[in-house]
């Protein structure tokens, strides 16, 4: 159970908020759940920790700067829905005399990203994939893009960096229709003010103006690496993504160890360094996002996010091309062994479907174990389900010294019927006799004599035609019989 260090549970702040219970505690604040008495609605109270010993002048400056930060947060949330909206800001003096600034913010039913990652680890679930993490954090990237080019009332454009981005400050709502929310926008600047007001710098995380595990080099050593800015949020987004896909922060340990990891040029906190398996393109994107010198880092989140999504898409496409054919593919040559090997498939174009492979190749045989296999090309014809033009591809095949096995006769295709040359000769002669018969019959009809039918030596021409026709029919039958024998 989180301790109520301010001892305000059960009290009413500013006459409007009835404090119910402690929700969480961080290095710089405590979050309470409260009820807005007038609205009868839940709100979140972010109560800030500040040094106890401050002069009245410093306290007045602190309160004014805190209110300015709250005003900026209000305008940010009005234009950027992913930023949690503040409802009220105030500074109260506790009965013990301690100064406590607080923000009353909208209540969002959800879970911080760090709790989600811890729950996955505790329940033995694998970490998020990079695609899942990018999809989950895209609303956060879009919110940062807008805050880095934020138009304030009056028309001026400011670059407002979060400077304390981490899984703890990313709230994932319970309802899918609500986008991820960003917490603690502007609080980092309040921390810096608190640190300056204390008049000293210590190793206490309470006074540190950033979370060391997610802090960029310029936050550790501004004299060497310059001021913070949009590039600082690029660093934190990259570190957060690495944690999402590995399940653990890539930078851990004591303050000295974390500083060393952050500034070590030979060991960047990229996915591969943390144990994740990613493509070269993705690793290069993270290496640039986590460059020590801000000049070599992505200058803004949109550029980083664009390169990362393109690298992920390219990796997905490459894996899709290299995937073996689906199991439902059917082969017309069942004795062909499709061993894994390099393939080149023409499967471009929108609406392409998985190919149905029809293979025409010599039957395989097993190579002796003592011989080094060579390679031969087997032509494959891919007939696509969408009836696109057939394409050809080559598949590397092992060659052997054994003779190919003979295909069973039952599997041999039947040879087409072919008429022999002898049959063709008889059929031609039959045609001649039939043509002669028709000519004689026609002559008998046309050349009839007045005294009777046309005759030669007492034999009618029509009878001669009938004889020729009979001979032709007999020869035609002989021709067909000869073809059947062949």
Provide a descriptive summary of the structure in words.
- The chain is an alpha+beta fold and 486 residues long.
- The chain folds into 4 domains: 1-107, Phosphorylase Kinase, domain 1 (2-Layer Sandwich), CATH 3.30.200; 109-323, Transferase(Phosphotransferase) domain 1 (Transferase(Phosphotransferase), domain 1, Orthogonal Bundle); 329-340 and 355-362 and 373-403, no CATH class; 421-485.
- Helices cover 37% and strands 17% of the residues.
- The chain is built from 12 helices and 16 strands.
- The chain has helices at residues 56-79, 113-122, 130-148, 187-198, 217-220, 222-225, 230-246, 255-263, 280-289, 301-322, 421-446, 461-485; strands spanning 12-13, 17-25, 29-36, 41-48, 86-93, 99-106, 110-112, 150-151, 157-158, 170-173, 181-182, 356-359, 375-383, 391-398, 455-456, 459-460.
- The strands form 5 sheets. A 6-stranded antiparallel sheet has the order 1-2-3-4-6-5, covered by helices on one side. It has a 3-stranded antiparallel sheet with strand order 7-10-11. It has a 3-stranded antiparallel sheet with strand order 12-13-14, with no helix packed on it.
- Strand 8 and strand 9 form a beta hairpin.
- Helix 9 packs antiparallel against helix 10 and helix 11 packs antiparallel against helix 12.
- The longest helix has 26 residues, at 421-446.
- It is rod-shaped and about 155 Å long.
- Residues 190-207 and 323-419 have low confidence and may be disordered.
